[in-house]
Amino acid sequence: MRNLLVWGTLVTLAFLPFTATPTKTLAGPSSSASSDYKLLAPISHGDLTIFPVVSNKSYDTAQFLTLDEGIRSGEVQVMERGNMGSMIRHLPPGRTYVDSAQVNQLVLVNSSKRPLILLAGEVVTGGKQDRVVGKDRIVPAESDPVDLAVFCVEHGRWVGTNGKFDTHASVMAQPSVRFKAMADADQSKVWEAVGSANKNMSARIAASPLNNGNPIGGTSAGLPRPSATPPAVFALRELETTSSYAKVIENGAVKQEMQAITEPMQKSFESVIKQLRNQNAVGVVVAIKGRVVWADIFASNALLSKYWPKLLQSYAAETLTVAGTPGEVSIKDAQSFLDRWDARHETVDSEPGLYRQRELFGDRFRAFELTSLLAKSEFDIHLSKMAE
Length: 388
Prior knowledge:
By secondary structure, this protein is an alpha+beta fold. It has helices at 67-73, 175-184, 187-207, 231-241, 245-250, 252-275, 301-321, 331-339; strands at residues 3-6, 14-17, 23-24, 37-39, 43-45, 48-55, 65-66, 76-79, 105-110, 116-118, 123-126, 131-133, 137-139, 146-152, 165-166, 281-288, 291-298, 343-351, 355-362, 365-372, 380-387. Helix 2 (175-184) packs antiparallel against helix 3 (187-207), helix 3 crosses helix 7 and helix 6 packs across helix 7.
């Protein structure tokens, strides 16, 4: 299993394995019965449909910090392993560190007084390669450096001016990429999903009505554009020459396509929630071209609101890269997907007193449940569910 690297007050450097216990089970989410979740009427635009999920339960999540918040404030730092020596609070005497950067491993330090939530699919850019977080987890407040299980989402680059990362683009990988990182935990499959998404996005932009004589695109990655090169041509050229998932999502032409989906859906979502003030919206079920594909559910409306912009962007990106013919999806179908939690078996990763993550293997679905084990905050933080 993946390891958690912890520097304690001892003079030794230890790798502490997560507890992984395969079991047979028919249980659903440990502290959230499916009857707690109900769907509101769908909100659709083009091929994307979302069903707001409301719950009769809500928890106080104010104590938790998100990755975007931590990076912006400087209280959270993500770096290659070779650049971590100065960040260790309890450095063993006489120990030295060399550059030991690895593709599937980054180090994070949480200097804030709040525990940090990391969600699988969050993209950090910089260092030697852009990476995507591979699993949901909680990092304790004022932590020593901890190892992160990550996957590269920028095939080919292995250089960088420094080893630090940021989330300036606030990118969440689209469901097809998140699935490969979370469920398969296989770098080659993540690269394959990123490559397919980037290729399909380029084809979508090339065929877009917005590209027929209109000035789309731009210098989204900060690259200079020759004055004689039309913006749309430059944008397409940029898409065809990069392997970076983040740069594709930041591309001006791609942003314009995604905004055509996200802006009207955001307005509709806000309108629905505003009209239903007593409804506690905590998540969404997502359907693309008439097929239910994903669900994200949080412990509170406040936590959903923090992640919602980047989640909606990720759903829009998936919509732009999925093949197939349009279809219709009913609220009955979406509710059925939301209600099914019976699993053939499960695996559990845990760090006692901090968090537990369960992976449920069900009939044509996989689900992940992140539960806080912190004192006075023992509840499910995030549930993600994907159709297979």
